[in-house]
Amino acid sequence: AATEPELEITTDPGVAREPKADAGAGSPDNQRGVEALFARLRAERTTAFVEEVADPPGTDSGIGPEPDTNGTSSAGETPSPEGPDDEDVLQARDVEVGDVERSLAKALKRALADEQNEVLDILRRSRGGVPLVDLLPSPSDHTARYLAVAGPDLRTAAGRGLASDAEPPSIDDLAVSLAATLADDVRARLQRALEAADGDEGPLVEGISAAYREWKTTRVEPLARHHVAAAHSRGRFAACEGRLRWVVDGEEGPCPDCDDNALAGSIDKNQPFPTGQLHPPAHVGCRCTVAGDPA
Question: Which sign, positive or negative, has the C-alpha torsion 136, 137, 142, 145?
C-alpha cells in the first residue's frame, strides 16, 4: 500500500517544505490531498498576517486618540489664550478704525506728493548743487508738517475707542511719533541721494523720487495702521472701568509678549501687564487691544 507523503514543518507554522518524493505521491488522491493541505496553510498564514497588521500586539484597538482630560490635544497643543468673544472685539475695532486708517494713509500720501513736487521744483530752479537745508524745512518744521496731518485722524480713532461723548485721551505723543518717524526717514533718504549723486542732477532726481515713491507705496499704510490702532486702544483703555484683559490680534504674526499679556487674564486697570504696558501696543506693528472685564 502507498504511504502518506511526509511533511517537514519549519519553525514558522505557516511554511511547509515540499513533501519527499514517494512512489505513491503522484496518485490523483494524494496529489489533491497535498494541494488542499498547502492551500489551508497558506490561508491560515495570510489571515494571521492581516490580523496582526490591522491590530498589532500591544496596541489599543480603539479608533482615534483617547479623550483629552488636561485641556491639551494629543499633539501637545495648548488652547489659545484668545477667549471666545475676542474675535468679536477685534472685528468691532476694525470696523471702527477702518475708514480712519484709510483717511490717514491718504492724507499722508498727499502730503508726501506735495512735498516731493516742492523739492523737485527747488532742484530744477537751482540747477543742482542744493544742500538738504535748501530742499526741506528745518527738522522741527518738517515734523510739524506731518504732525498737522496726523493729529485729526488719530484723535478720531481715540474717540471711537472711548465710545462716548467724553473728551478722548490725548494722542499728542502718538502724532509726534508718527510725524517724526516719517520726517526723519525722508530727510535721511534725501541726504543719501544728495551724497550719491555728487552734483549730478539726473541721479539726484531719481534718488529723490525713489525715496518718496517707497514711502507712498509701501511704508505709509503700515505706519498709519499702527498709530490708528494705538490711538483706538488708548480710547478703549480710558473707557474701561475696574478690570480689563489684553486681546491679542495675531494679524501681523505671532508675538510671545502679547500672548503672555493675554494669559495674565483679567487684571486691575491700574496694574501693568507682564510686558510693562497698561494697554497696547506692546511693540511696533502690534494691533492688540483691550476689553473690559466685568468679573
Answer: negative
The mean pLDDT value for 26-54 works out to 48
Instruction: Please identify which residue in the block is written with the cell numbers 524745512.
Output: 137
Is 229 found in the same domain as 177? yes
- What pTM value is reported for the model? 0.70
pLDDT in tens, 178-216: 999 999 999 999 999 999 988 788 899 999 999 999 999
Cell numbers placing 128: 543742482
Last residue of a domain, one of 197, 220, 239: 239
pLDDT value of position 165: 85
At residue 163, the 3 state secondary structure works out as coil
Query: Does residue 16 form part of some domain?
Result: yes
In a domain, 82, yes or no: no
What single-letter DSSP state applies at residue 282?
S
Whether 43 and 6 share a structural domain? yes
Average pLDDT value for the chain: 80
**C-alpha separations of 177 from 106, 144, 161, 214, 274 in Å:** 18, 11, 20, 19, 24
Q: Which of 191, 215, 239 is the last residue of a domain?
A: 239
